[in-house]
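Here is my example:
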Amino acid sequence: HYLILAAGESYGPFLYNSALQHVIGPFDVDLGAIEIEVVDANDPECFIKSMATPPDCAVLSDCEISQLEVEKGDCVSDSTYLITVDFEYDNAPNDLFDLTVNGALVGTFALADLPVTTEIVASDNGEDHIEVCINDTPDCCADKWIDAPSCLNGECHIDNLIAEPWPCVNDSFLVDLSFDVSHPASDSFDVFGNGIHYGTFAYADQWITLGPLPADDSTAYEFVVQDAANPDCKEDIELGPIGCTDTLPCNLENVEVEIVACPSDSGMTLSVHFDAGPLDDQDFVLFLDSTYVGNFPLDSLPIAIPAIPWPVNDTTIHFELCLDTLGMCCVTGTLAFEWCDDPVWPGDANANHASDAYDLLHVGLAWGATGQPRPLAATAWQPWAAPDWNALFADGTNYKHADCNGDGIIDAADTSAIAQNYGLTHDMVLPLPGVEATLDDPSLWVELPNDLTNGQPFSAPIMLGDDTHPLDSIYGLAFMLFFDPEVVDPNSVDVVVDNSTWLGTPGTDLVSIDRRLAQNGVIHVAITRTDQQNVAGFGQAANFIGFIDDIWSKQ
C-alpha cells in the first residue's frame, strides 16, 4: 500500500496494483504551491515528492467556445466513421479539451492540435450528438447534432481496393490486397481474376497476400473482390504487367534465433537476427512449428519478440523465417531451448528460487569470474535463457546464476539486481543447507552503549567473535538483526559496513547489502569478501545505527 500526503492531509492507503492515478482535494488556491508526497505505507523512506501549482481560477468564468464545426469523414466500419472537429476558444484555463459523442467520452485532445480527426461510434437513431468541453471545465462547452453518414445504413459496398505488389524474388512476386467494406452480406469474401478463383477469405483479415504469381512482364492481372453472399457487392482493380528486371536474390545468412526469456505466465521471448542483403526494406515473417507468430520489419533487426506462447507438450521447436507469407524465400531451423532447463532469475544467485541477502554470498565467492553473457542481458524477475559457465559452486549451482545482470562478468553490477528483485520468489523456495551450531562457535551480537538518551542517535557495533572464540577462517556471512520498534525509531535504523570492520575494506575487497523491514523490527544483512581470500579474526563487523525512542525499555 501507499499514501498520498498533501497540505497536511493524508489520502489512502491505495493498493499498488490499483490505478496509479488519483484525484485529491479540493484545495484552497490561496495556499499557493502544494507539496505532494507519495510514500510507501510500510517504509517511510520510500517516497517521491513533487510540487502542484494551483490554476488561475479567476479565468474560469470567462472561458468560451465558439464557432464549433464538425465535418463528417469516411466510414471506417459498418458502425463507425471519422469526424473532424474544429472550434474557436477564449480564456481556456488549460491546454486540453474533451470530446464527447452521444454522452460517451471519446478522448482528451490538445487544443494546439485543432482541427482534430478521430473515429466515433454512430448512434442507432441516425443522429449523433457532438460536444466539446475544455478539460475539467464543465461550464465551458459547445455542442452540435449531425446526421450519421449514409454508409452506416446503406447496402453492402466494397471500395478503396488497393493492390500492392512485392519485389520480385526468383522471377515471381506476391501481391497484397486491402479494401474497405460497409454492410457486408456475409462474414467473408471471394477473390477472382484472370479466370482464377484465389480463394475465400474472412473480412476480419486486415489484408491478404496472393501468389506467388509469374512476373513475365506481359500479363496484366485483374483482381475482383466480391462478397461471398452478394455477387453485386464487389470491386475490381487491374495490376501490371509486372517484370522482374530488378529481381532480388533470396539470400538469408547468419541466422540466429534464440530463446532469451524462458517460458513463464507471459510466454517466452525470442531474439531474432539475420542478414537479408538488399531486402532490408522489407518485412519478414516468423513461424514456430508452422504456427504464424507475426510480421516484423527487417530494419528492426536484431529484434526481441516477447509474449510468444510456448508449444504444449513439445520437446523440439522448429522455426521458419520467410521474406513473405507463402514460403518464396525462407530459412528453417531448430531452437536451442536446453538453456531453459536451468534458467537464470536475476538476483537469485544461489538458485534457491528467491532473491535475498544470502545471494550476495554466491556473488562474492565468484567475484571477477567471466563467462558467456546471456543472449539478452536484463534484470526483470522472470526466467532468462543462459548458457552454462565452466564453473560450479560447491553446492553444484552454475556460476551463471551469480551473473545476475547477464553481462558476462560477476561484479558490483550484479548486486543491483539482487536489490531490485529483493524478496521476490518463484515456484517453491528451496531451503538453504544449514550447519548445526555449538556452544563453542563464535557469537554474533549487538553491543549497545550504556549512555543512551531519548531522541538522540546511537551507534552500536555488531560484534563477530571475541578473543576466546575467534574465527579461524571466514569469507562472508548473512544474518538478520531484530530490534524492538517500540524502543528504537524504525525510521532511523540502518546497518553500516565501513572501515571499522575487520572483515575487509569496503569497495576494495568487501561488499555488503542490507534490506530494512523497519516497521517489522528486522534488517537483513549480508557481507562478503570479493578476493577469494578467507580472513581470520574477531571484533566489530558492522555498525547498527538509529535513534532511541524509549530509553526505559532498554534491556
